[in-house]
Amino acid sequence: MHALSVRQLVKVYANGVQALAGIDLDVPRGDFCALLGPNGAGKTSLIGIVTSLVRKTSGEVSVFGHDLDRELNAVKSAIGVVPQEINLNLWDKVSNIVVNQAGFYGVPPARARRRAEICLRQLQLWDKRHDSARTLSGGMKRRLMIARALMHEPELLILDEPTAGVDIEIRRSMWEFLRETNAAGTTIILTTHYLEEAENLCRHVAIIDHGRVVVDDRMATVLARLQQQDFLLTLREAITFLPALPGFDARQVSDHEIEVAVPRSRPLNELFAELSAAGLEVVSLRNKANRLEELFMKLTERKDRTPAGRIEEALQ
Amino acid sequence: MSLSQQAIALATLSRKEYDRVVRIWLQTVLPPAINMGLYFLIFGNLIGSRIGQMGGFDYRQYIAPGLIMMAVITNSYGNVVSSFFSAKIHRHLEEMLVAPMSAATIVLGHMAGGIVRGVLVGLMVAVVARLFTPLPLVHPLTTASVFLLCAAIFSLAGLINGILAKHFDDISIIPSFVLQPLTYLGGVFYSIALLPDLAQQLSKLNPILYIVNAFRYGMLGVSDIDIGAAFAMMLVSLAVLFAVCVMLLERGTRIRE
Hints:
The complex is a heterodimer of chains A (316) and B (257).
Chain A: E1 2-12, E2 18-28, E3 32-36, H1 43-50, E4 58-63, E5 66-67, H2 72-78, E6 79-82, H3 94-104, H4 109-122, H5 138-150, E7 156-160, H6 168-183, E8 187-191, H7 195-201, E9 204-209, E10 212-218, H8 219-224, E11 228-235, E12 249-254, E13 257-263, H9 268-277, E14 282-287, H10 291-301, H11 307-314
Parallel strand pairs in A: 3-8, 3-9, 6-7, 7-8
Antiparallel strand pairs in A: 1-2, 1-4, 4-5, 9-10, 11-13, 11-14, 12-13
Helix pairs in contact in A: 3-4, 3-5, 4-5, 7-10, 10-11
Chain B: H1 3-23, H2 25-28, H3 30-51, E1 53-54, E2 57-58, H4 59-89, H5 94-97, H6 103-132, H7 140-164, H8 170-184, H9 197-203, H10 207-220, H11 227-251
Antiparallel strand pairs in B: 1-2
Helix pairs in contact in B: 1-6, 3-4, 3-6, 4-6, 4-7, 4-8, 4-10, 6-7, 6-11, 7-10, 7-11, 10-11
């Protein structure tokens, strides 16, 4: 049974904008799925429909086998959601926010208080439990929304850009927490604009563009299909011009740095052999960008092509 | 969710609304008491002393039940409309919408908050009124019933306003242009026996007239309206408003995109 199963989901808003144009998506139980796409691709509409905040135009959604139309309460009970926008009552106390949320799911008060302590400690907010939400930093507010979403122990956690605007240290601690939550059995669907985040955390990736799923596969499979990697190489000696590197597409970035595109079909040893032959000594090497970002840009930036055409080109 | 879980959700929401009323008591409870004190001072003591008696009672005594109801109406309505609309605008209403709470539970929870504020303010105004005039209680059960029914009815009306409102202006239009005129014309300050026949008949279309007179009957034992008709009107209003609230929430009107 899938944690989430979506069939031919369509959403057309009252103003005529079609956000979803017939999406099919399956997220297996226990999965950690990245839901990616440019702004306006339809990610938030999809999450809105699954969490019942947005009404679908047509199509079917089921969560752990419960149909959204016929078993809405079972669907709601199974899901914890962390929205993109801060939607906390900022005048309320941290502890009240999480305990009340548990109460809304029918969790008895004593259990809700015990659960609140667990969730707030896990997200490093226990010391702030008596404070008003408005006094928290942006990162703390995001963590509070995660704690709130976990209060009723959902089987499926949906996070819509949970680390937006959060500093790198807190972001990494949130990654660790999400990994642990997933390892404990919670299925996670994550949307993010930090593609490094998706690549590091997720085993499954679905990319949405123009209201359609253009990629839906295991992360490793998708990344393995990328045919080229770009490297930035730092040279020991400054150069005034870049000698030819036969078989490689290279360009000079600065007097000590060059960028080289390496086809997956060619081993890096061949590149180093060419560099040596050209008399260039390399002191360091790094990926220019994360690999998923390359794919994402290829898929979503070429507006002159259809989604199907872009995916075909990107994966060639 | 089972019935017991819905009861937990209802208790949680009611407690949340109660906490809100108490947390901002300077905005919710104190101003109405001061306002009503001024009404008694100006209309009761200064002008009322020249009016003499109405319906067989000292004018200050005659207007006290109406002023208490006026405070209950305004505050029950205002509490729910501001609480719900604020939650909608700031999006923490989503906390309830994503949870498996029934629409009826959400309605009852907000109604409980409105009743709490209406009752607290009503009692405060009664205390203020007692400083100016003795307050008899001829039919205590009727008084208490009307008190609670009035708070419940206007809480539900406030909830409908909160659900349908799109802008902040929308939550002040109804109180300013509908509720306040109907309250002033609802027999708070006068008996409709003083009005010409046509005005009397028109007044009987005003639901607030029934509530004010039923409450006055409970306190003073006099009314311009048949008490049975007043209770029937209140119970029907309560049922209809409750059904409308549930329907709007279930449909997601102006709440779900």
